[in-house]
Amino acid sequence: MVGISRGSGTKQGTMTNSDIGRQPSFKGGDSLRIMLVIALVGGVLASHVHSRSSMDLSPWKGGGFGMFSTIDSPGDRLLRTTIHTDIGPINIAAPQDLGDDVSTVLAAPSEQHIEDLAFKLANQTWVTQKPDFDSVMTPADATAADAMADALALFVESSTVQAIDDASFDPNRHHRVQVDEAVVTVYRLEPDGNTSFRPVKLAGGSALAVPGGDLS
Amino acid sequence: MSTTQLRRSDAEPETAGEVIDPNRLRVSFTNGLAERLGQTDVPLILTLFLVILATSSAWYIHVPVVSAAIVGVLFRNALLAAGFWYGLAAVLAADVVAHRWSVDNHQYLIVYWCLALGVSAGATRPLEVRRSLARTLIGVVFLLATIWKVLSPDFLDGSFLTYTLLTDPRFDEVARGLGDANLQDLAANRSALQELHDPRNPVTTLSLTSTTKMGGVGLTLAWLTIIVEAGVAILFLLPERLRTAFSPLHRLRDPLLVLFALGTYAVAPVVGFGWVLLIMGLTQRDKESTFVSVLYVASFLAILAFTSPWADIVGITT
After folding, report:
1. In angstroms, what CA-CA distances link B52 with A170, B49, B79?
2. Is B210 in contact with A78 (Cβ distance < 8 A)?
3. Claim to verify: residue A80 and residue A178 sit in the same structural domain
4. B contact test, residue of A33, A92, A158 with most B CBs within 10 A
5. What interface predicted TM-score (ipTM) does this complex get?
6. Are B125 and A30 in contact (CB under 8 A)?
7. Which chain B residue is nearest to residue A105, measuring alpha carbons?
8. Predicted pLDDT of residue A136
9. Do A2 and B288 touch (CB under 8 A)?
10. What three-state secondary structure class fits B110?
11. Which long-range contacts (CB under 8 A, 24 or more apart) does A65-68 make?
12. Does A98 lie at the interface with B, CB-CB under 8 angstroms?
């Protein structure tokens, strides 16, 4: 029998390997301690189940241990974000600094989470790059060049629209896009035959821009 | 010859009759390993590695966690103190609560485990409570994992694993080996998925290129997964009175858990999840089974090794 000594100064004493093999039943305080941990697991599980039904929480997240059980993981959900602007609706990619918000919306697309993301998107400083005519036009044509740059900036590919920090806005390089509203929609993929997966809308919402406000 | 003699310094001249016997050295090593792995602080020290390497890297979590781990390594009494583990659990729980929608499930499990270590450290029968909680947590995790899979239609019909085999690069070798997929098709599938995820593109149906075998492979793997996970859940949650009656079966729980961990994390190496399961497995093992202890610790190392880019190292071109 090999004794397994516990640290001195503790009340844990010495335990033998044969003791380790026994299956004890617990009473009193020890039983309560075990129940405390189980109750916590149960509480988180109850919250997970509730969030699953109330906000389409992905089974992969939220402490329910449903990972690798369904295609409906946050990483396989689809996010579409559109800003309605003075030059029309533009599908945009959410800026990287909103990464946490995007993760939250994809995992748990509640009305509140979607509105929070939409509000932040609507109140970013969105710009397009002005074409650079300085190298090909003389100073006398500078006014014409500015007017042309402003006009061309309105014919934008959505990929050229980006959010920037308001402090780095440069009127010589940037054309400010006026945003009225941002719309956020989340889809999940659903099997549709053996190798086809169709998108199904899970949730959507929008938020208006605060006039003159940049919250980035 | 004693262990002390075997460890004499090089400076000490070796005299006739004192030749080190390799067999005795081996026995000494084996005994030493058995004794060390049998000690009850081993799972605690491995837990310190777990919290250092597999929890948030944000400074406000990393700094207190690593500091606590250093204290735990330096002062053994700290490892046996309930407050130490409660503190660690509280820090990790704060991070989980703050990011509760996006953190992976094993971060919850690590918090539960640290809490279990704190709870058991303050118990009148600390080792028994620790073992019981380790066993219960493993059982509950696998029970929930099984329930979610059984409740998920796209898991039961094999769609989920077929989709995963066709799109997840971690499963490329399985898709090629079992499903006859080729790399060009798998790359094209990922490209199609990437385009669908591009927020500027319209939302359309995703069509993947597959093989005739892939659906069957996905379905087989799905049911195999359910059987193994349900088996782990049942064996770990077996009521006390039934453990004796089904003793040989009950002993299978350790190899089954190790089999699951090695099989799963060799393909998708989630170190944190694998480690916390193996640490809890090591904690609850029966008696002085050195083999089971070695199995758990070797698997602990193997899961870390799985994260290495072996294909690049051995020069396999894919």
Report:
1. 44, 5, 15
2. no
3. yes
4. A33
5. 0.86
6. yes
7. B101
8. 62
9. yes
10. helix
11. A65/B105, A65/B109, A65/B141, A65/B144, A65/B145, A65/B148, A66/B105, A66/B144, A66/B145, A66/B148, A66/B149, A66/B152, A67/B104, A67/B105, A67/B145, A68/B145, A68/B149, A68/B160, A68/B164, A68/B225, A68/B268
12. no
Instruction: Answer yes or no: do A150 and A115 share one domain.
Output: yes
Q: Does A20 touch chain B (CB under 8 A)?
A: yes
The total domain count for chain A is 2
Which of A36, A67, A98 delimits the end of a domain? A67
Instruction: Name which of B117, B83, B129, B140 is nearest A39 in CA terms.
Output: B140
Q: Is the model more confident about B2 or about A83?
A: A83
Say yes or no: A94 and A139 in one domain. yes
> Regarding beta strands A162-164 and A125-129, do their DSSP bridges make them parallel or antiparallel, or are they unpaired?
antiparallel
Q: Per the domain annotation, does A135 fall within a domain?
A: yes
Locate the chain B residue with the closest alpha carbon to A161: B200
Comparing CB atoms, the residue among A38, A61, A68 nearest residue B101 is A61
Is residue A37 assigned to a domain? yes
Domain extent for A144: 76-213
Domain boundary residue, one of A43, A67, A91: A67
What's the rounded Cα separation, in Å, for the pair B115 and B103? 18
* Residue B166: closest CA among B188, B133, B134: B188
Sheet holding A162-164, edge to edge: A162-164, A125-129, A174-177
Radius of gyration of the CA atoms of chain B, in A: 23
Give yes or no for A54 touching B (CB within 8 A): no
Question: Is A198 in the same domain as A179?
Answer: yes
Is the model's pTM score more than 0.80? yes
Same domain, A89 and A191: yes
CA angle B182, B185, B186 (to 5 degrees): 85
Angle (CA) B263-B178-A66 rounded to 5° is 45
pLDDT tens digits for range B68-119: 999 999 998 999 999 999 999 999 999 999 999 999 999 999 999 999 999 9
Q: Amino acid letter at B25?
A: L
Q: A123 with A169, same domain? A: yes
Do A61 and A134 fall into the same domain?
Answer: no
Evaluate whether residue A196 is within a structural domain: yes
Supply the Cα-derived Rg of chain A in whole angstroms: 28
